[in-house]
Design goal:
Rossmann fold; alpha/beta; elongated; six-stranded parallel sheet; 5 domains; 29 helices; single chain
Length: 824
Amino acid sequence: MARRTAVLRLGEVGPPGELRALDVQREYPFELTIDGRVVAAGSFSSPLGDQGWRDAATQIERAAQAEERELSSLRRPLEIVRSAGRHLFASVAQLAPELRAFLADAGPRRLVIFTSRPELHALPWEAMIDQQWAHPASADLSIVHAADRFDPIPAPIEPPLSVRIVIGPGTERKTLPAIEGLLQRASARRIVRAPEGAVAAMVHVEAHGDPEKGTIELERADFLDTQRSATMVLLWSCVSNLMQPWGESLAMKLHRQANRLVLGFTTPVREDTAGDLARRFYDAVFEGRPPVDPETALTALRAALYAERLRACEWASLSVWLNGAVDLDAAVLDGPRLPADGWTTAAADEEWRFVRDQLRTFGRRGCIAVVPNATAGPQAPADAAAEYRGAAIHLRQPQWTADLDACLPRLGARAPSAHPGDSLVAAMKALAAFPDSVLIWTGAGQPEVDALQWLSHLPPGLTILLVSPGAVAVPVGLIEAASGSDASTSASVTAAAPDALETLEACERAGRYSAGVERWDALVMDAARWDPERLRRLYAAGYWCFIRQKGRRAEAAACLDALDRVAPSEAALLRGNLASRDHHNDEALRRYREAERLAANPRDEGRALLEQAYLASQRPDGGGAEVLFRDALSRLESANERDDDRWRSALGRALRDYADMLVKLNDRLDEVEGYLERALVIHAIDGRTSQVAAALETCGHLERTRGQYAKAEQAAGAAVVLQNQFGNTVGRLRSMRELIELALQSGAPARALAMAERLLATDAAGGDEGRIAALAARASWQLGDIAKAADWADKALAALPPSERDQRVALGIIRDVARSLGPP
């Protein structure tokens, strides 16, 4: 973001002359321009006399030279320095109302002290603080000096940025690791070390300063005399901006030699402090995400010094001379390549060249592309991501969860739970801070492709390329790139074939309950030889498959009897589910509390609390559901049960059910969006299609509550499609009713009526004829077809149970009003 700029021109432009004594009576003409427009002119007098200036300068130096252990007791120097700075700030602010407003504003701004008079540059401008004792740097106000020229338009450099390092004799070389580390991490196309004798764009200097001579100690005394036209000269050196009696400081001299930005210090600076400042500066400018320009980095450093090392007064010593703004974007380092063992400097082989070409062809920023029928080796060549300046992530099957675990700390991210879906969502959020990044996922399968389509906020600067060894269904919204060769030369990883029990569990997760039931008989025949844990898995999966099939309640009950013997806690939980289905909520609550009591770990405690929370959320008053949901999530998020399907399922459900309750309460909807994104990705990665559909239903409710009907219809429609795929008639009808309701609320009653009549005419209402007919009655009423509204109301009233009281009352009104009007 460009900096607004105020230029305060003081005194006549000309040669600097000698350093004159500051006199509160001496007037200097001033002209003030803000953003290129002259807004005021007049005369300026220093609020500090010569003694006041010297007192402040002496106390800044005293604080800067104090030992660390003495700083806590150095109260008087800080009071003098801040009093002088506050006095100077008030004097400047009163020069013009426009300047006062500019100083009180926030955001990136720059105040340029532009004068050829050395005594004015010697004033403690960097010590200025406002009447609330706040330093303006904390609100991003940069205070810089200029003597001859100033250009607010940034000057971009052409890469590579050449760097010269100059270290004086006798120093502890504390700044050297920062600049050497930068050169080691940089690629030759970004930053290089300048050859001996060549002109450098950036000069890094660490040397001792001589306050009497106004110089710094270097092996070549004439080096800085000839240093001209650099982009930056960084003097991490004592007294490098101390104004001398002859009217010049070393920093000012370098400024006059057309070096665009010069950093210096008016006092001695501790070598440890110089090393820390150098590290933070280079990190922010060249490796920050997003990176910042040098002036912004120095302003932030001053604010940090004021906050962290107030009594050391280094914040008042650090000085910047500026001929013009600096643009180093071309030298910013590439972001991290993660994980470290997922990349190589070796040349790309044939397969990776194909993947790289697909990335260049289809990898538009802010998109997800899928390459089917292609494989690639476990290490990506560096040139595959050469066009991406941000982070580059390479996830590999089957170890992608471990890859993500290695990436998150380097991205500065932390997942809320151990579930890989949460890690993936956390990585996406972290990558938003790395503009122009890429994620390459080799060996990806259908679950990974499906999971990524549900990301709510794909960072606009991120490209994702999924490379799948087989054919995959590419969802709408993702790009299908060119297919690879079916005959691959790389060694691909083949997952072990699932055993029969795993197949049964996969059927249950995907909502293919009939297919699960078909596998049941053969498995039960072998179960006598199984251990208790395998038996628990068998009977739990069997219960879910049977209870969701009509006419199979006896088999579901038999599964519960078997669980009583091998897993009492699991049996109590599922018996609670059975009671809830029969609307025996008191019995269900008793069973869930029993399951909580029998739980031996946070996972099972969280599952039992989740069911109690869901029951409470169905009551009109919510019945403490909020606290129960939060307790359930706390237990589940703290559990590290990555390989346990019970934990994975419960975590995703807790997120969705909690979100659903908040939507119904119209409460904290922005928070809801985050819960739903996590739930969708978690369930999609686990292949739990029925739960993905349920989460999509809640997404539709959320958007309907926000009045975003197009987005709501998109979510509800996606739920219908998924539920139709795995034959969930109840869920499909529920989502269809939501689609019809959305059409009614968005002013499309004709579409609502068409959908309702189609469902009823094709015998697809599946026992839900009363609710569908009620929607048809409302749609006909909105369309003005009074007679048809009355007919549909009659049919709905005949089918709806007495418990649907509110709906029956509304339908009765439609019917009776229509009939009171008589025949058309």
